[in-house]
Give the backbone structure.
Amino acid sequence: MSKFGKPDILKALKQNQLFAQFEEDRLSALIGMCKVVNFAAEETIIYEGTQNDTVYFLLEGQVAVWAGGEHILSYSNQGDLIGEMSVISKNPTSAAVIASAPSTLFTISNSDIRNRGNQDLILLLDKIFLDILIYKLIKTTDKAKDFEVTQRNLNLTKEELAQTSGALSFSTGILESVLASMSDAVAVINAEGQWINVNPAFYRLVGLKTLPTNLADWPEGLGLRGAENGEPLSLEELPILAPGGVRKARFDEIFIRNEAKPEGIWVEANSSPLHRLDEDELLGLVLVIRDITQKKKEEEALIRAKEEAENMAKAKTNLLSVMSHELRTPLNGVLGMAQLLEKTQLNPEQKDHLQNLMESGEALFHLVANILDLTQIESGVRLNFNQKPLSVSALVTEIWNKESLSATRKGVDWNMDLTGLLADQVVSDAARVGQILRNLLNNAVKFSERGTITLKAWHQEDLLYFEILDQGIGMEPKEIESHFHAFSQKDVSFSRKHDGLGIGLALSRQLARRLGGDLRLESRLHHGTKAIFFLPAPAIDEESVSKEVFALDTSFAARFPYRILVAEDNQMNQKLILKVLGKLGYAADLADNGFMAVEKMKEGEYNLILMDLQMPDMDGIEAARVITGEMKLHPVIIALTANATAGVEQECYAVGMLDYMNKPLKLQELADKLAHWGHQA
């Protein structure tokens, strides 16, 4: 087993200038596709006269090159490359390579890399081969120049000069062949700014048949244009030039327009300085330009799709807002008047009719709320959560008393167990917890024709648990997860026995998880279902919770005196709000829209406003902004709205409102708000 792991190989590669120019993730990918090979002393690594497909990178040891039985040279430095020219030229090897001592080499198989089709690694390999060729070419050119001087000084033979020229021609031919095969545009420029080589793809891309000799003429001759305004790039903006010499640069999204491509091309231009492999001397640079037009088009298409999706989501949110307002507004009137009617003298038959009316109205109200919440979640809208102190027993009892009526009518027994509720006062969102409980109890009653429904609640380590157990029809265990999908129903036939849209469980799990908990089901067909959900709910000191109770009659106004303005455009809601306030002893004034509310604030000294949001001429948000901002008045403004979409509550607070209530209006909730702000005064 090799002692060289991936980090060791990476560190070794980075010592070689050929590899040091690449990011570590690319080198790591290369390492993953190559292997480390160990050779014993005297073992042959490359045989003379054979086809070699592998570049060897010396990690440890010593290898020797032999030609015709004669020792030519040795490699012993970590990072030395062996066999690279035979891979590039694809000619039979002219020498053998033999391990002089036990040696470890990192092997890069050219055909293996290319056959795997990883374009990034293929481009990396091409860049390495290109740098090798350029280095060899420059070295050969330097030798040729040196040879000319030597010839003049020492009068060497023409045969020796011909050999050097032949070597130069051979290296140049390989370089030209590699460059011509590349699809990217490549230009090699020396440190003086002179062209060494330019491949055919470069000419095609920039739309020129010849390049200007003087680089100062580049902007006038080349079809490069700025992406913003389409003007020719200045000399300083070109990625291949900089005052004082060449530099490494990366320019994304340069735009090219030439005669062959009048519609234009998006390109990515990169330039890298070229140094001698064993020295810091600057030789020049390599400029690579890649056509990214298709990538750019795909990115623009994604941007357009994102914008369209955002517009659709915004339109959907606006539709939800309108739906919420339009559905909740009449429901507010129906349920509000029913609550007022409940407090009057009724005979038994009337009470029964009223009870049915209120149950149906509340069922419709909760159904609308579930649909709106689930749609908002699926649209990616963030729901509001209002974490406040609550009494678990009071919340559970209130919901249970309402839901158990349906169970009693069906002849199903019910039982509530709160013995494990060691902490009653906790911090959580009462509305959301109640929504989940109501959905689960509704399902338990719906799918039970006999037996008992049991509700348990307990508190443990700052977690609040609920369990609803029924003895209804149940389901197969394999069906459980499907019922957490929206609009999933037990029976979808026209003659189905159980009503509902199949959204209660889907929404309840989503709400539980957004509260930091979860919901799960356990069930067996014909043996009932157990629903368990939990959520974080830190316990609080019960003594710190106010136990003050006020009578909900006309004495309330004497305890908390307010001069109240009601901004509401719906006549039914106006009548309802005035009657509810009258029960508490208040005589409020009315404003039919936000504009009238502002005008009345100029005329009277109101210290509390119940503000509807969606009103003609001027809505409640704008009216509150004018009152608290422009008029610099500070009444207690409580939003009273049928719009339950996410974000509305924060919008109200942002314009100076202090509190927020959803319709339908409830007497107890309103009294709690008034008492709270009365204590703050």
User: Anything to note?
Assistant: The first strand starts at residue 35 and ends at 39. The radius of gyration is 41 Å.
